[in-house]
Amino acid sequence: MREIRFKAWDKINKRWIKLWELLFAITGELMGIDDIDGEIYGLHQFELIQYTGLLDKNGNEIYEGDIIRGFCTGNYPAVIECDAPNGGYNIRELSGDYIEIDSNTRLEVIGNIYLNPDLLNI
């Protein structure tokens, strides 16, 4: 069973939020988050990023939106994306092709689409 964990990106201030809790409505819908200082963020203010349950070759956690490279990508940067139908994750290469990943795939996180979008401009 995969560990469920999240990070949050502040879309307005362009920084990581020190996520404390997810805030849900009684109907089960995500309504917002709050950080360790008690500041509440509405849905329009943040992007929630999920942990894939995988580690890169250096032991770093791999999250959606991480920019990775490795043997399977021809050592070129690629992006981790959620594949909602099967609940897994894929690698989207710059060519637009997809590679399925699993715990045996040797990858290295080199950045993410939020702080390092320039890594994708080869």
Which bin fits the share of residues in helices? Answer: under 10%
CATH topology call: SH3 type barrels
SSE pattern: EEEEEEEEEEEE
* Number of E strands: 12
Molecular structure report:
The chain has 122 residues and is mainly β. The chain has a single domain, classed as SH3 type barrels (Roll), CATH 2.30.30.290. Strands 11-10-9-8-12 form a five-stranded antiparallel sheet, with no helix packed on it. Strand 10 and strand 11 form a beta hairpin. The model has no long low-confidence stretch (mean pLDDT 87).
Question: What is the fold's blueprint, element by element?
Answer:
Blueprint lengths: L5 E5 L4 E3 L1 E6 L5 E6 L4 E3 L3 E10 L5 E3 L2 E5 L7 E6 L4 E6 L4 E3 L6 E6 L10
Antiparallel strand pairs: 1-2, 1-6, 3-4, 4-5, 6-7, 8-9, 8-12, 9-10, 10-11
Based on the model shown, name its key terms.
122 residues, mainly beta, SH3 type barrels, five-stranded antiparallel beta sheet, globular
Brief rundown of the structure:
The chain is mostly beta strands. It has no helices and twelve strands.
